Amino acid sequence: MKGNTIEQATPKPTRPTTKRPTTTTLAPTTSATQLPVFDTNVITNVSAPLGGTAYLHCKVRYLTARTVSWVRRRDWHILSSGLMTYTNDDRFTVLHADNSEDWHLQIKFVQKRDNGTYECQVSTGVGTISHYYHLHVVTPYAYIEGNGEYHIGEGSTISLVCIVENSPSPPQYVFWYHNDRMINYDTERGGVEVGTEVRGENTQSTLTVNHATSADSGNYTCRAPNTAQDTIYVFVSKEGDNTAAIQRLETSSSGMHSATLLLSACLIFHCAFL
To answer: What pTM, to 2 d.p., does this model score?
Structure first.
């Protein structure tokens, strides 16, 4: 409109701002995203004596909510999942403490059939990871020194030595049997002594029977816990050491053989002149 002026609004000055660079903070890697890892420093070749207890040590890091299972490889039998066991054989137990990384398999009263490979495994959701253990069941054995027979004369002393070998630890006891009767503490007969001692890696047991009679003849067996036994036969004769008797028998047999040859020669000679 004429005579009128229009005033334009002057913009207010704006406060300058400094643009700060943006940073992205990455969440630290936690056990929730870390795959489980087996401790490979544990012993995987385990030896256990027959009748003893075996421990297979499985240690898993970053397990979180995942489950550890034990599998027997010879028949693919799942022995356990977590702390639950899936076998009627109560010799198998899983040992685990709260907040521990250890999931150990315990096998009590080990038998020969327990020998073999066992698998500690974890399902990760994208697959299964495994760690393998090999159990070797060791069978100790006893042997009585000699060749299976022991000859002695009446009134002499029977002395037998039994050696227990291949035993991871010394046996708690060694028993001697005469036929089917245990004689370690034989007070009825008397004169029986048993001494057992550890010699290096072996155990030696000595049986002494004083003033032997013919009634002491028979099988003598050396037995120890979870050990293969051994037996020897003892001959007690009135001839003393019947080596002499055997020699006389051989001499007698030789003489009879010579007489037979002489008789045969005489018959042939006689027939030649008929």
So the answer is: 0.62
